[in-house]
Automatic annotation (TrEMBL), chain A:
GO terms for molecular function: damaged DNA binding; DNA-directed DNA polymerase activity. GO terms for cellular component: cytosol. This is UmuC domain-containing protein. SUPFAM superfamilies: DNA/RNA polymerases (SSF56672), Lesion bypass DNA polymerase (Y-family), little finger domain (SSF100879).
From TrEMBL, chain B:
It holds the Pfam family Peptidase_S24. InterPro entries: LexA-like (IPR039418), LexA/Signal_pep-like_sf (IPR036286), LexA_repressor (IPR050077), Peptidase_S24_S26A/B/C (IPR015927). This is Peptidase S24/S26A/S26B/S26C domain-containing protein. It comes from Candidatus Kaiserbacteria bacterium RIFCSPHIGHO2_02_FULL_49_34. Residues 16-109 form the Peptidase S24/S26A/S26B/S26C domain. PANTHER family: LEXA REPRESSOR (PTHR33516), LEXA REPRESSOR-RELATED (PTHR33516:SF2). It comes from the Bacteria.
Amino acid sequence: MQFSQKNAKIFMHVDGDAFFASCEQATNMQWRGKPIAVGRERGIVTAISYEAKALGVRRPMSQTALSREFPQVALLASDYRKYELFSERMKSIVRRYVSDISEGSIDECFADVSSVTTWSDVRGFAKALQEELCIKLGLTISIGVGPTMTIAKIASGFKKPRGLTIVTPENLDMLNSVSLRKVPGIGGRTEQKLAEQGILTIGNLLALAPHEIERRYNKPLVELAYELRGTSVRGIEARENAQSVSSIQAFMEPIIAFAPLLTEFSRNIERVCRKLRTQHARMHAVTIGYKAFPDIHTLVTYTIKCPSPTNDPGTIMQLAEEALHAMYRKGVRYRAVYVGTHGMLESAAQQKLFTTAEDETEEKRNTLNDVVDTLMYRSGGLPLERASSLRPKQTRSEEDTGTPLLKIPHSNKILNIPYLGTIQ
Amino acid sequence: MAGFGSPVDDGSDVGTLEAWLLADPDATYLMRMEGEALLDTQVASGDYLLIERTRSVRAGDIVVAEIDGDYVVRFLRKNGRGEQYLEAANEMYPKLIPQESLNIEGKVIACIRKYEN
C-alpha cells in the first residue's frame, strides 16, 4: 500500500531517558552526572542513571550484588509520586504543542502531530518541543517521529539519551536492520518463534509479502507488520479507550499482619478511584494483587466484577476486603500491593430511565466523593482519607531516599511541586 | 439606595494565588534557603524559594547556578567584558567568579516565608 506524503499521518513518541533515575537527579543537584540506581525498597535495581549504566550496572541486579560490585553507586528508594509529578508536567508541556496525545505509561506519551506540522517541518517542531521539555523538566527526553505509532516508538529509542530520530515514509529502510527484540509488542515467545524461522530483524519480517504474513501469523503480528511498513493501524484514540488506571505500592519493610496490609490496599484503592474520578471514568471490574516473598517478582492477582460501574472507594473496598480475607496467608511476608482497573473503562455514568434504591445509595456516594474531591483538591487540601487508609506512625530511615517531596504540615499530603532541597 | 456598591466590571476573571505565583507551573520548583547569602535582599535562612527553569535569565536576576561544581543561589552579574559572575547580597560572602563552569539552573521568581505551619 502506498500513501502520498499529504495523507500520511505523523506520529511522535516522547520518551523520558532513564526516567526514574533522571527524576532523582533533577531533584537532587548533587547527583547530576553521578551513577545512581533506584529500587531500594524492593532490594533490586529497577532503574539506573546513564552514569551507572556506563559503569556496567544492569537491571535487574540485586542490592547485594550492586553494593559488592559497584559500591560507588547509590541505590535510592523509588518515589512514584515524584515521578508522577514529572510525568504530568511532561505531558502538559507536550499538550501545549498538540492536543491529540495518548498518555502511554509514566515516562512516555504518543502524539498525533499530523494536524500541527508537516514532514518537512517536523524536525524543527520536535526539536523545539524537546528543548522546552529538557529545560523545564531539568532532565533529558528522546523523541521519535514516524508514520505510525510503532515506528515512532522504535525511533525514540534509536539514539538515547536526548535523541531525535525522524523516520519519514521515504526512509523506512533504515529500520530494516533493527532487531525484532526492539519492536514494541513483540514478546519473548513471539521473538523466539520468529527466530526459529530465520526472522530476526524488521527487514526479515517485511521481506515476506503482506498476504504471506496474514497467512502465517495472528492478527496482532499482522497489524504490527502493517505498522512497520508505514501504514498506521493504531491510532491515538484506540489506545486511550483501552487505558487503565492502576497503582502499585512496594514496602520498605515487608508486611506480615492483615490490618496494615488492608490499609495499604485501601490507600491504593483510594488512589485509583481518585484518578478515575478526575477522568470522569468508572470501572466494571477491579484487579487486586500482591507480591510476596520468596517469589517477589510475581504479581498474584484477583479480579472482582463490580455490580455496576463505579469509582467509589467504599464500594471497591467492600468487594476487595472479602477477597483479601480469602487470599491472605498468615506468616507470608508481603512486599507490594497492586490495585488496578480491569477491562474497559466507562467514560461517564449511564443515564437510566428508572432509579432504584441502589441507584440512590450510589448517588449519595457520588455526592460524598464530589465533596471529598472538592475539599482535597480545591480548598487547599484537607487531609481527608478513609479511616481504613490511615497508617500507623512510621519510623523509617530517611537515608538514600532521594530528595523527598515536601510534606504539608498537619496533613498527610505532599506539595504538588517538586522540591529540590536546600540551597546556600 | 443603600446596600452593596457595585464596582465597575472591567471584564476580568478571577484567578488563583497559585496561578499568579507559578507563571509557568510546569517549570517551577521549590527550594529552601540555607544561610545568609541573600540577607540584604530580605531572603532569610529557612525561606522557601520558587525557582523557574527558563532560558530567559538576565544579569540582575537571582539565580540558582552550578559554579565549578558547587550549587548556589546568588545574583547573576556581568563585568565590563560581558563575563558572568555571581554575587551575594551580603558583604560577608565573596564574589564567585567561575574558573571552569557556570551553568544556570533557573531563576528565583518568588520568596515565601510562612509564619505558622
